[in-house]
Model the fold of this input.
Amino acid sequence: MQISLLGSGSRGNSTLMKYDNFAFLIDAGLSGKQIIERLSTHNISPTDLSGIIVTHEHIDHIKSAGSLARKWNLPIWTNRGTIENGKKYLDGIPEYNEIEVGKSFTICGLRADPFTVPHDAADPFGLIFTSENGYRIGFATDMGFATRLANEKLGGLQGLVLEFNHDSGMLLNGQYPWKVKQRIKSKLGHLNNEDAGILLQKIGGPELEWVVCAHISKENNSESLIMKNVNKALQKKCEKDIKPQTKVCIASQEKPTELLGFI
Ligand SMILES: [Zn+2]
Ligand SMILES: [Zn+2]
Done:
């Protein structure tokens, strides 16, 4: 199971997941052209894809899901709330696999557990993927705060994609209109560095091999502020166990991350 964030941030999110000889996308919020270009950096063409999971109907996650699905005959995996609220993007898709948040499903032989995240969309969810040999990757972005459920679900993972959206001080003092600031920092908005760090510290066990910091705000965050919180969290983890270094990767809006996981 291998994962690469093709692009991540408020201007578009899409992630490639590879398992066995299969490949699929989590979200398709970049342009179709960008997604295809970035897939090619991993030697994947759209005809290699088995489908797209759509986590919620915000444009930075759903924008090209319908057009890619129609053009390449790809099934969409999502829930009813997202289908109903994302109609204008998903109209005329060839196949729809309805999932229910809280109920596991299988995609390309991989077990996926969708869990609810607090965010201002119809029925948004994070995901845990478990391979046949027990390797587990968690995926949680677009999450207003770290719920108890997220704490429970994201424990004991080998790999984690976690939102480090903004620095609270930068957001508060930045240029955004007050209404936007309020939305981002609300319990249905986006996860700030500090809360993400605390969550990471709680859930990061000895088996955690890598973390990708994702959905980073261009305007209200910096790599050094993120790393300060990540290092603090991982330092605590190091005190707990003797296993060395968890690899840290910063996702970007412009280019794909390397493939993380195992072959
Ligand atoms: Zn969103
Ligand atoms: Zn988003």
In short: The radius of gyration is 17 Å. Residues 56, 58, 119, 121, 142 surround zinc ion (ligand 1) (CB under 6 Å).
